[in-house]
Amino acid sequence: MSEEVLNTHNASILLSAASKAHYPQDDLPEVALAGRSNVGKSSFINTLLGRKNLARTSSKPGKTQLLNFYDIDGKLRFVDVPGYGYAKVSKAERAKWGKMIEEYLTSRDNLRAVVSLVDLRHDPSADDVQMYEFLKYYEIPVIVVATKADKVPRGKWNKHESAIKKKLNFDSSDAFIIFSSVNKEGLDRSWDIILEHL
Ligand SMILES: Nc1nc2c(ncn2[C@@H]2O[C@H](COP(=O)(O)OP(=O)(O)OP(=O)(O)O)[C@@H](O)[C@H]2O)c(=O)[nH]1
Ligand SMILES: [Mg+2]
């Protein structure tokens, strides 16, 4: 599939689901977005779809509570996953979150790849490392997107990229994309790599 056959602006929220029984029942390919709360998952979706606020973004973390399925031109779906690592979440809620995301990632046949978002400015958190290891363990194709690149001077990108890769024990056969929702750095490459996975 290429961007020529995919009208990326023809996108809408399809449904929100907490468990398998509520997932869409067809075999369209899905790409899920995972990452720390506030890292920019919803902004990434909006940027790729050229929309301002289709996926709800917030400066308050922990806003996305369910798996949100977005339909793109009836051909592909993005699945916005609630962010992890938000401190003000109870133990019980965290456990519920863990079950929800694990169920989706380990059982969903539609899943083609996970975009694992990290913040280009910082070393990955323990949760980031755990998520990457989880995806590798289950052999789920992963695309690492280092976001908020507009906040790091271009001359320091390489240094930050190396630090992130080292901490993740990054597999050099995975894609690594430097991205910004503010200036659209990495937008074309993100689409190219996502479409390669379908
Ligand atoms: N400067 C800059 N800010 C960004 C970028 N991406 C996201 N943000 C900001 O970061 C905040 C969080 O973005 P969201 O897209 O809501 O993050 P999220 O990962 O979906 O957060 P949760 O839904 O809580 O897990 C918002 O204030 C965004 O405007 C980026 O590339 N550059
Ligand atoms: Mg979000």
Can you offer a commentary on this structure?
The structure is a single chain. The protein has helices spanning 41-49, 91-107, 126-137, 157-168, 187-196; strands spanning 11-17, 30-35, 67-72, 76-80, 111-119, 142-147, 175-178. By secondary structure, it is of the alpha/beta class. The model has no long low-confidence stretch (mean pLDDT 92). The protein is built from five helices and seven strands. The protein starts with 10 loop residues before the first strand and ends with a helix. It is globular. Magnesium ion is lined by residues 41-42, 63-64, 80.
In short:
The protein is an alpha/beta fold.
Write the layout of secondary structure elements.
Layout: E1 11-17, E2 30-35, H1 41-49, E3 67-72, E4 76-80, H2 91-107, E5 111-119, H3 126-137, E6 142-147, H4 157-168, E7 175-178, H5 187-196
Parallel strand pairs: 2-4, 2-5, 5-6, 6-7
Antiparallel strand pairs: 1-3, 3-4
Guanosine-5'-triphosphate (GTP) is lined by residues 35, 37-43, 57-59, 61-64, 82-83, 147-148, 150-151, 180-182.
InterPro entries: G_ENGB_dom, GTP-bd, GTP-bd_ribosome_bio_YsxC, P-loop_NTPase, Small_GTP-bd
Organism: Streptococcus porcorum
Function: Necessary for normal cell division and for the maintenance of normal septation.
Order of helices and strands, N to C? Answer: EEHEEHEHEHEH
| List of distinct ligands in this structure | guanosine-5'-triphosphate, magnesium ion
Helix content: 25-40%
Tally of individual helices? 5
Strand content: 15-25%
Look at the structure and give the mean pLDDT.
92
* Number of extended strands: 7
Shape: globular
Taking the alpha carbons of the first and last residues, their distance comes to 7 Å
Rg estimate, integer Å = 16 Å
Low-confidence stretches: none
Read across the widest sheet, the strand sequence of neighbours is 1-3-4-2-5-6-7
Largest sheet: 7 strands, mixed
Oligomeric description of these chains? single chain
